[in-house]
Amino acid sequence: MSPTVSVVVPVYNEEGAAVQVASEIESVFSKTYGEGGFEIIMVDDRSTDASYARLSEAKQRIPALRVLRHEHNSGKSAAIRSGVMAARAGIIVTVDGDGQNPPADAARLAMILRDAPPHVGLVAGQRRARQDTASKKWASRWANGIRKSLLNDNCDDTACGLKAIRRDVFLRLPFFDQLHRYLPALVNREGFTTLLEPVDDRARTTGQSKYTNIGRLAVALTDLPGVMWLNRRLRKPGKVSEAE
Ligand SMILES: Nc1nc2c(ncn2[C@@H]2O[C@H](COP(=O)(O)OP(=O)(O)O)[C@@H](O)[C@H]2O)c(=O)[nH]1
Ligand SMILES: [Mg+2]
Description:
The protein is an alpha/beta fold. Helix content is about 40%, strand content about 15%. The protein contains eight helices and seven strands, in the order E-H-E-H-E-H-E-H-E-H-E-H-H-E-H. It has a seven-stranded mixed sheet with strand order 3-2-1-4-6-5-7, sandwiched between helices. Strand 2 (about 40-45), helix 2 and strand 3 form a beta-alpha-beta unit. Helix 1 (about 20-35) crosses helix 4. The chain is globular, with a radius of gyration of 18 Å. Bound molecules: guanosine-5'-diphosphate and magnesium ion. Guanosine-5'-diphosphate (GDP) binds near residues 12, 210 and 211.
């Protein structure tokens, strides 16, 4: 029997947090979805620390846990995509591997998507009070404002790691590095609706953030025009019918 929800967790150098994240997800999801109702797919992006070894070892204790590993480091979006491709459920929920996202919120987002009408493709978490540095919050507010006005995606926090998405919708999206920051815009482009849902955020207690403000600005300057180009090049065939 296939699970109802696949929890996909991108992991890069999170040896201090990854196993704890898997255990917390297991305890929350087994209550909500029951044994066999969910799977946890942790995708190690060729970490240079002990993340993969620790997760592989934790598989003995956590039956719902699957551990994938990339041959080459290729970024968070690629890790999410590998997890979605391997997933056995029709509903995916993504959770960061650093412990900042509360698993209870992940279970709730997946439930909202499961109960939503089919035109809802994505339920995107929006962090109420981000537990990050002031400079990161300021840069993020600024970047989100620009992206929102240019793409009209109505989303104030696209970088939130918590997102529930239909697997078939995700697989229809064009893939590029940093795709995960543009999910609302790309899901809307496919004709699906995005629901925004407030979630909590926790401070990072171990490891280091993988992103800097300058690094994110540099990729945004490439990606934003790219997504605008994708939107301009969209042509919609409307309903596709087949002769009887
Ligand atoms: N697989 C993979 N995951 C990454 C990469 N960079 C960041 N992540 C994961 O994405 C999540 C969010 O990254 P983080 O550095 O905490 O970003 P922040 O919360 O915005 O500071 C964490 O689970 C990271 O382990 C990467 O290059 N590959
Ligand atoms: Mg984080």
